[in-house]
Design a protein that fits this description.
single chain; 360 residues; mainly beta; Neuraminidase; 2 domains; four-stranded antiparallel β-sheet; 6 helices; 25 strands; Gal_Oxase/kelch_b-propeller; F-box-like_dom_sf; F-box_dom; (rape) hypothetical protein
């Protein structure tokens, strides 16, 4: 007979179970024993937890003028979390693998990178280039991106936009500043991107980090603009021929580690995936009828997805489409009046325990 006082499960099985808990539950269970208390700082477990977590996507959005946000999870429903630990009024500019890049509202040029699940944050140093005040057209960087690979240490923050001298039109120079968390410094490079078009609010929000590159969809729908963070080089990535110059609404998302676009017409939602990144080969992975939500289609926006489901936001609702069962479900609805539509502040989010302060 076995030892009745021995563990019920092997340690590896216990770790696999704990790696599938919500972050809040994981931290709550730190008081169980010394070994569990050390788990959030154990390199092996952190890697395991993050590898499991990045397979799921949630949606975060602002629902009031406070620092409270909702998090909509396919399995766990709706929960709230706050960014009050930043002690500043902020708005989310980018999201990547559990980290958020937030801009201070009252003080332009102040940015934070935080993990709302662990409440850890880092204020970014100001660049000597005074980059925010020199971007065109609204005094802020046109593009803000956050790159975080859960399998590596550190993160990058990117700010880019057309340069203009005071009182002059933009001169065609596309200025890019990249913050490296390991060196705690900004680097700058300037590229000639004449006629590269502009960006809508949604194309700014939906920055995608895959294959070591950040991606933004051009508002003209001719291509995706990609930044190679290793070589500081911009690249144009072609869209599928069927939609590159079409009049349908197109949105850039990630799909299980692949670059993806979702094409919306009046009655169909078509999901494309870039099967081969180097050769820019796209394929259709799903075509979804929108007839049962026809009245919502003009104001609906896809926010994030996995191979199992797609989250979409309207002015006051968050919907999920289950791809296997082909069912739609309302996950959240704003009660009362709220000026900003949910899609305006919605971002894809993953709940991880990625740290912000590797090099500090």
């Amino acid at each position: 007979m076995g030892n009745p006082k021995g563990p019920l499960f092997p340690d590896e099985v216990i770790l696999q179970i704990l790696a599938r808990l919500p972050v809040k539950s994981l931290f709550r269970f730190k008081s169980v024993c010394k070994a569990w208390c050390l788990l959030p700082s154990d390199g092996y477990f952190v890697t395991l937890f993050n590898q499991v977590s990045v397979k799921e996507q949630t949606l975060v959005a602002e629902v009031s003028d406070s620092s409270t946000l909702i998090c909509v999870d396919n399995l766990r429903g709706v929960s709230e979390f706050s960014l009050e630990f930043l002690r500043d009024r902020v708005r989310i500019r980018a999201s990547c693998n559990g980290l958020l890049c937030c801009a201070s509202v009252p003080e332009k040029g102040v940015y934070y990178v935080c993990n709302p699940s662990t409440r850890e944050f880092r204020m970014l140093p100001r660049s000597r280039e005074r980059h925010v005040t020199r971007f065109y057209p609204d005094g802020e960087a046109a593009l803000v991106g956050l790159a975080c690979d859960v399998g590596k240490k550190g993160f990058y923050v990117v700010m880019a936009g057309y340069h203009r001298s005071f009182g002059h039109r933009p001169d065609g120079s596309f200025v890019c500043l990249v913050f490296d968390s390991e060196s705690n410094k900004w680097r700058k490079f300037v590229s000639a991107l004449e006629g590269c078009g502009g960006f809508t609010h949604m194309s700014k929000n939906q920055v995608v980090f895959v294959n070591g590159k950040l991606h933004w969809l051009m508002s003209g729908l001719c291509y995706v603009l990609a930044l190679d963070l290793e070589h500081d080089v911009w690249r144009k990535v072609s869209l599928p021929d069927e939609i590159s110059c079409g009049g349908n609404r197109v949105y850039l998302l990630e799909l299980d580690g692949f670059l993806s676009v979702i094409q919306l017409s009046d009655v169909w939602m078509k999901i494309w995936k870039m099967r081969d990144y180097e050769s820019e080969v796209w394929c259709v992975v799903d075509s979804i009828s929108l007839r049962c939500i026809k009245g919502l289609v003009p104001g609906i926006f896809p926010i994030c997805q996995t191979g199992e489901y797609v989250f979409l936001a309207t002015h006051k609702q968050v919907l999920v489409y289950q791809r296997r069962s082909k069912l739609w479900k309302e996950m959240f609805s704003v009660k009362g009046s709220y000026s900003l539509p949910l899609w305006f502040s919605a971002h894809a989010f993953r709940s991880t325990i990625v740290p912000c302060n590797y090099a500090l």
